[in-house]
Specification:
206 residues; 50% helix; extended
């Protein structure tokens, strides 16, 4: 049996979650989240240039926390019978942003003039976060930051247009949403969304 020798050396703490043995807040945060489920799109959402309200909306949308018809129905609250854009299927936020024929047309219209048609959602893309990840990978590296901001803006405009249809009695109108998108994009440019400039301006189809 090995004997333990006591010395006059003062005790010192070793932080086992860092190779240096020194505590850091970063390693503590990693240890806290060890084994938890991560929010996969967090970097391209929170690190992108966009107003905070738009980021919060998209964070809720990706987690299916928006008050769309599916969520309202589960709580017995009044809700649209069908998607207000296409009137073809039940409404949920993934459908509104990605799967709806109206949404797909919108994405094609704004991405085509920028040479990003390959990044537009296809009929097989039904989950917004999955489509966003694939769209980003298809884009050239120098355009990815701008594309992230553009996608946040596009999703925000779809959500606003949907709410206008639900709460104000407006009719889905691709020309109206494209016009609103162009004006909002200019405001984002002026507010500091420099990454959008890397995409070019393009000419939106009529």
């Amino acid at each position: 049996m090995r004997e333990m020798e006591l010395t006059e050396e003062p005790d010192h703490h070793i932080w086992r979650f860092e190779s240096t043995g020194v505590f850091t807040s970063k390693s503590a945060y990693r240890a806290l989240l060890n084994g938890s489920t991560t929010f996969e799109p967090w970097r391209r959402l929170w690190k992108s240039w966009a107003p905070a309200k738009c980021k919060v909306f998209l964070w809720l949308a990706i987690r299916n926390k928006c008050w769309t018809a599916d969520r309202l129905a589960r709580r017995g609250l009044p809700h649209p019978a069908q998607c207000v854009f296409c009137d073809q299927t039940d409404e949920d936020v993934q459908h509104i942003l990605t799967d709806c024929v109206f949404a797909r047309e919108f994405w094609v219209k704004i991405l085509t003039p920028l040479g990003l048609l390959d990044s537009a959602p296809s009929p097989n893309d039904q989950v917004f976060a999955d489509w966003w990840r694939k769209a980003r990978k298809r884009a050239a590296k120098e355009k990815r930051k701008g594309l992230n901001t553009l996608i946040i803006l596009g999703a925000w405009m779809l959500w606003k247009h949907r709410n206008s249809c639900v709460f104000e009695g407006a009719q889905p109108n691709i020309h109206k949403i494209l016009s609103d998108f162009r004006m909002e994009r200019q405001l984002w440019h002026l507010a500091g969304a420099s990454s959008l400039r890397a995409l070019g301006h393009g000419v939106d189809p009529d």
